[in-house]
Prior knowledge:
By secondary structure, this protein is mainly alpha-helical.
Amino acid sequence: MPKSPPRYPDAFREEAVALVQAGERTSPQIARDLGINEQTLRNWVKRAEIDAGHGAPGELTSDERAELVRLRRENRVLQQEKEILKKAAAYFAKETL
């Protein structure tokens, strides 16, 4: 199984994005100097633009994506709890007859 790429600190990511946005050098040059993949740097820049409110309509910011993940997880737990309660109610209804 391939090794997963290293997780870069947030401060490193922010500095890399700031270098790209400054426009003094090209993205490939900055990526090479920092020792990261060009596509990784492009992804960071795109995510920073979306988080700043400059994304296309319908694109979720990082906060919105995190909230969506949390809500989906919560929804899944609530559905499981509902199923358990339905089974328990059916069991106890059968016992009382």
